[in-house]
Amino acid sequence: MRKKIFLVESRASSIFPVCGNPLKYRDSCLRTLKKEGGEHLRYLINRLKCTHCQMLHRELPDCMVPYKHHCSMNCVVPTRNGLKL
Ligand SMILES: [Zn+2]
Asked: How far is CA 58 from each of CA 2, 4, 15, 69, rounded to the nearest angstrom?
């Protein structure tokens, strides 16, 4: 069975929360999220680089907690046409 990967996109211009300077797209990486029932979801996360201090920053959706693989309280299961993917 093929594994599904969810692409995480943001149209907002990103600002690095540490120094307040703009971020520029660098690359993407896979991130696994464990749900309560033991289900694993895979997300493609953008990695951004600060244009000033060159530090890397991952653009995480609200359902992810930094450095954790478990779902946050406001986790939303991706759906298409009302059906769980
Ligand atoms: Zn910076």
From this structure: 26, 20, 12, 14
pLDDT per residue over 47-85, tens digit each? Answer: 999 999 999 999 888 778 888 777 766 555 556 665 555
| Alpha carbon of 12 to ligand 1 centroid (Å) | 18
In whole angstroms, give the CA distance from residue 10 to residue 43: 13
Supply 26's token pair. 């660098």
Q: Does 82 fall in a domain?
A: no
Q: 75 CA to middle of ligand 1, Å?
A: 29
In a domain, 68, yes or no: yes
What CA–CA distance (Å, rounded) separates 8 from 30? 10
Total number of domains in the chain = 1
Task: Give the structural domain span for 32.
Answer: 5-75
